């Protein structure tokens, strides 16, 4: 008889503990510091491509290939190690938005994602500025030579046409610019659970464990009951 009461007491004690599990895990989840949980960041930026007749820098398809190529980072971000470049490329997504715009997004485990994306965009803009300036100098030199011919009264109809074409090209030339709709900085999205969400997750985890323990107790009870017979 004492063994029966002892078993019943132990069973009730175990059930009481199991019932308390969701509450305990909920409290633990609510009290857990958010800083100790891994944060997930996504930094985003857009680039409006330039227009100065460059087959690579003015072509969104070519720019996507350029920014997904390890050689670009070896040249423009030489301080990065090979391992760091590989990690950066695995977390970077470059996509074509339209014929003159590309979108970049970089994910990481800390706010470093935003600064890394800044470095990528700035490196591209520096290269773009260099090529834009080179093309502008070529156009300006050609315009200057044709204007000298015009001043001497030796210009032909073809040269007049060419001068007009060059001036129109000069007016339409644009370099690439960073273009982040709705914000002046890359969008930084922090995906971190709030206290309430952690408490709910803790409670759900507690319920799941409690159900597993109840099922386990029932299986043990049935097995012992079968052995008694």
From TrEMBL:
<protein>
    <recommendedName>
        <fullName>Teichuronic acid biosynthesis protein TuaF</fullName>
    </recommendedName>
</protein>
<keyword id="KW-0812">Transmembrane</keyword>
<keyword id="KW-0472">Membrane</keyword>
<feature type="transmembrane region" description="Helical">
    <location>
        <begin position="199"/>
        <end position="220"/>
    </location>
</feature>
<keyword id="KW-1133">Transmembrane helix</keyword>
<feature type="transmembrane region" description="Helical">
    <location>
        <begin position="14"/>
        <end position="32"/>
    </location>
</feature>
């Amino acid at each position: 008889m004492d063994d029966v009461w002892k078993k019943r007491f132990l069973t009730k004690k175990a059930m009481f503990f199991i019932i308390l599990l969701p509450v305990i895990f909920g409290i633990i989840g609510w009290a857990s510091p958010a800083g100790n949980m891994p944060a997930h960041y996504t930094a985003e930026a857009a680039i409006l491509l330039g227009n100065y007749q460059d087959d690579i820098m003015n072509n969104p398809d070519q720019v996507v290939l350029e920014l997904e190529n390890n050689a670009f980072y070896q040249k423009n971000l030489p301080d990065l190690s090979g391992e760091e470049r590989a990690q950066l490329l695995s977390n970077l997504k470059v996509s074509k938005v339209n014929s003159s715009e590309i979108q970049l997004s970089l994910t990481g485990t800390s706010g470093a994602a935003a600064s890394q994306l800044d470095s990528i965009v700035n490196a591209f803009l520096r290269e773009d500025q260099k090529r834009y300036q080179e093309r502008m100098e070529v156009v300006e030199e050609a315009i200057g030579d044709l204007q000298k011919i015009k001043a001497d009264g030796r210009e032909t109809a073809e040269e007049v046409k060419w001068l007009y074409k060059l001036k129109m090209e000069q007016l339409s030339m644009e370099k690439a610019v960073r273009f982040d709709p709705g914000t002046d900085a890359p969008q930084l999205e922090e995906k971190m659970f709030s206290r309430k969400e952690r408490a709910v997750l803790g409670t759900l985890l507690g319920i799941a464990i409690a159900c597993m323990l109840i099922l386990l107790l029932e299986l043990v009870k049935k097995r012992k009951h079968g052995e008694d017979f």
